[in-house]
Amino acid sequence: MSENGDYETSSSYVPDHDFSSARKAYEVHAGRSYDNARSSGKTIGDLLPDHLESKAEKLLCLLCDETESMKKTPGIFVSKGPYLIHEARTEYLGPDVEVSVGAFGDVPNGETYPAQARPFAKGQMLKTRFEELVMEAGGGGTIHENSELLALYYARRVKMPNAVGPVLVIITDEMPYEEVDPETAELVHVKLKNAISTKDIFDELKKKFSVYVILQPYGGGYDSSITARVHKKWLEYVDSEHIADMPEPDRVVDVIFGILAKESNKIDYFREEIEGRQTAEQVATVYRALKTIHAASIASGPKKPRQLKAAGQSTMFKTGGGKKSDDLA
User: Fold this and answer.
1) Which residues of 213-236 are buried (b: 16+ CB within 10 A; e: fewer)?
2) pLDDT tens digits for the chain (329 residues)?
3) Which of 45, 111, 128, 175 lies 20 to 30 Å from 6, alpha-carbon distance?
4) Can you tell me the distance from the alpha carbon of 58 to that of 73, in angstroms, rounded to the nearest whole number?
């Protein structure tokens, strides 16, 4: 069933989970998170451990711009988190998958918590990890945020001795700054003798993770020329096969599924599932976002014919009575 239709709000793995209510509750929480953090005396050190570590084989890292123009996206992750975890565990990455979430802002704008990263989590603990992030909702209007700073942290301060094909996704609408200087690097527990370029940071990060960038229109899409500039700049750090241009935040989880499908060689499954769950318009939006990411795989053709189900017949969700349903709001 499409996200615009009626649907059951529970499933066999998330009893009584109402996606719409979860999103609204998180947005209230996020709106208060900065004031609550400041009043309780939280520092950036409380939100960014000296290092992160996981011994799991399958890892997914989601790093989100938390400035004002991107404030809707974390709520979508929280509301659809149970679905994200279910699909990652059962279809794309395997039952031992662990997820780390992070947030980045704008150091030159004087933000209090410009780099945040939470420990790897399993299952429904992901919701708690998202709720630990502080949504400062700042930003300086410079078309830059410090994604490169958090990238440096994940490149150098994350230990994952058993990881096989870990995936890291950055979600933003702005470009990174050109470099990280030694003083700024200390914010993320990295010591530098000299400044390091953003290109060098991402080259290092790509040796450790499969790195993808999901770009939303700058500032909500009011200036397409700036959006084009942002995309062009990101091409200096990751190639077009690792960039998704996503016109609206509501589709972010579906785009991540498409990324995981590429990484796990399950694009046929991904397409069957989303075409059976979403409206044709929603599917088209996701496919446009994934055009360059899936290009090589689609060019080689499907491995076998796909028997697509009618819209509304998701293969994923079954309520107690056996009725198939889509939990997404």
Assistant:
1) bbbbbbbeeeeeebbeebbebbee
2) 334 332 333 344 454 556 666 667 666 655 676 678 888 888 899 999 999 999 999 999 999 988 766 667 777 877 787 889 999 999 999 999 999 999 999 999 888 999 999 999 998 788 889 889 888 766 667 899 999 999 999 999 999 999 999 999 999 999 999 999 999 999 999 999 999 999 999 999 999 999 999 999 987 666 789 999 999 999 999 999 999 999 888 899 999 999 999 999 999 999 999 999 889 999 999 999 999 999 877 654 444 433 433 333 333 333 333 323 333 32
3) 128
4) 24
In this structure, the strands spanning 59-65 and 158-159 are unpaired
Q: Domains along the chain?
A: 20-250 (3.40.50.410)
- Record the tokens describing residue 306, joined without a space: 């796909």
d(CA 27, CA 7): 22
